[in-house]
Every structure is written in C-alpha cells, then in structure tokens.
Amino acid sequence: MYRIDPDLRQDYERWMQQIADLPLHPGCVVTADDVMRAHYLLVDRFKSEAQPIGIPGPRDINLLMSALGRQTTGYGGKLKYQSDFEVCATLFYGLIKDHPFHDGNKRTALLTALYHLQRIGRTPKSQQKEFEKLALRTAADELHLYSQYEKHRNKNDAEVLFIAHFLRRNTRELDSSLRLITYRDLDKILRRYGYYLDDPGDNHIHVAKTVTERHGLLLRQRTREKVVLRIGFPRWSAQVPKSVMSSVLDATGLTERNGYDSKTVFEGADPLDALLDKYYGLLKRLRDK
User: Fold this and answer.
1) pLDDT per position as a tens digit, 191-231
2) How many Cβ atoms from other residues are within 10 Å of residue 153's Cβ?
3) Is 278 exposed, middle or buried (0-12, 13-18, 19+ CB in 10 A)?
4) Angle subtended at Cα 202 by Cα 199 and Cα 208, rounded to the nearest 5 degrees
5) Which one of 9, 40, 115, 231 is separated from 247 by 20 to 30 angstroms, measured CA to CA?
6) How buried is residue 109: exposed, middle or buried, by Cβ count under 10 Å (0-12/13-18/19+)?
7) Do 174 and 135 meet the contact criterion of CB atoms below 8 Å apart?
8) Is the pLDDT of residue 274 over 90?
9) Spatial distance between the Cα atoms of 119 and 161, rounded to a whole number of angstroms
C-alpha cells in the first residue's frame, strides 16, 4: 500500500479506523483489510484510465462486513461452508451481490478471490476470460447459463456451490518452486520483512529479527534479537539450497498460506499488488462491462 497515491492511502486508513471499531469475524481466511487493500490498489491503478473507479471506499461498511462474515457463518457450532473453495466462493458472491463499494465491486471481488485462491495454494489454470465471464454472470444472475449449473439448481445456495465447483475445476495447485539465490541475496530479501541473517560462524548463521519488549515495574521498553532459525552457512556468495530456503520461508511466515508466492518474496511485492500486475488485463476488461 505504500506505493499508492498518498491521498488514497489516507482515505484507506480513515476507513480502516472505522472498520476496526466494528465487531470483526474471527477465523476468516480473507480479512476486511485484505478486501480494502484490494479495492484501493484497484482505485489507484485505474485512476488514470479512461473509466476510473468513481468514488473510492465502501458505500456501506455493514454490507462489507456482511460479505466477509459469510466465510464463517454456521449453525449449531458447525460451519455452513466446509471446503476452501466454498469459503472462497461465498465471499466472491457476497462482494458482488451485496455491492458494498460505490464502484469497482466486480473487480474488487475478483482480485480478492484470486488472492483468496493463492492463500489456499491454488491458481487459475483456464483462460482468464473464463474468470471474467464468471464475474459478469454472477453479477447478472446468469449462472444458469453454465450447463454444469443444472446439477446445483435445486440445492440451497446453488450459486455458491456452483462457483465453488467452477473454482475447483478451473484452478491448479500453485507452483511452489523456489529460485536459487545466494545468502547475500537472502539477507536483502529478509530485511524487507523485518528479518535478517546474523552471527555467522561454525558453518552456520542465524535467521533473526529485532523485537521490542517491556520489562520491570515501569514496563520500560528494550529491544533484543530473537533467533527464529539456525541454518547452514558456507559463505555469503554460496547458493542457498532449496531445502534451506523452504525452512527459512516457513520459519518467517513468508509462505503461500500467508499470501506470498515466489514473486512476492523474491521481488518484494505486496501479494495483492503482484496479482493485480498479473491479471491487470482481465481486470481492465471487466471494468468496461
């Protein structure tokens, strides 16, 4: 978000302060902050286009929270939506049909869904136009035009179940291959996220971060180094083995489950911003319809 227009970032922060005062839904895969970031990144990216997103921000916060709450709705202690695909589908459907934003609802819903899929380790395998069509048909109540919809027509939440079926059929497991980099490169990457390599010796080095703690009766602050992992270290110019790189990413939380794919980690991009780059053409076409 640091790269967007300062006025838009200020508007985003103002809305987030209001959202923080509302009852939040614990356990959501995608949060209010995720959806708001997706929306404002889209606003910023399209502000110089012929048809920009008109009024940024929610037109109704309660509608936004309602759409988010669909992820964890349930009865008698049992969640209504059981699979990751159903949870992704119901949020996508809610963001489009509840229309919580003044403008850009389909684009926000689709970018959020792509991020949601990445969080559960999936990525589109079909042509992008199929996801464009899905968003348009969902908005127009035309999911019945899909032949596979007939299997779900008489079920409760037929639209959500069909969208979940679509997402399962049209995505694949995310490629988790890791690029080979040097230990010097790894240190630069980790520093973007508050971690670093430190104290090399005895053919090992620490993956660490600086933490702030309060101590004593006066709760005075002090900082200390927290070691999260110890890894093998031959020299700064040596390549990091894939097994070591995987352990580092797990220990620091820079994993696909937390919204980081290889491009995000190795290029330092925001997960949503990276997806916006990748699917810009799709989202631009959706703008015009």
Assistant:
1) 989 999 999 999 999 999 998 877 666 667 778 899 999 99
2) 12
3) middle
4) 30
5) 115
6) buried
7) no
8) no
9) 20
* Mean pLDDT value across residues 39-64: 91
Residue 228 half-sphere exposure, CB side, CA atoms within 13 Å? 17
Length of the chain: 289
CATH of domain 6-175+270-287: 1.20.120.1870
Single-letter code of the amino acid located at 104:
G
Q: Please state the domain extents for the chain.
A: 6-175+270-287, 183-255
What tokens were used for 245?
Answer: 């790189």
Neighbours of 268 (CB within 10 A): 13
Please give the Cα distance from 222 to 120 (Å, whole number).
Answer: 37
Residue recorded with tokens 């302060």: 17
Strand partners, 220: 215
Helical ranges in the chain per DSSP H:
6-20, 32-46, 61-69, 84-98, 105-119, 128-139, 158-169, 183-191, 242-252, 262-267, 271-278, 280-287
Predicted local confidence at residue 218, as pLDDT: 63
pLDDT tens track for 143-201: 999 999 999 999 989 999 999 999 999 999 886 666 668 898 899 889 989 999 999 99
How far out from the chain centre does Cα 106 lie? 16
- From the centroid of its chain, how far is CA 191? 21
Distance separating alpha carbons of residues 271 and 262, to the nearest angstrom: 10
Which tokens go with 1?
């978000």
Q: Which two tokens stand for residue 214?
A: 């309060």
Q: How many CA atoms lie within 13 A of 213 on its CB side?
A: 9
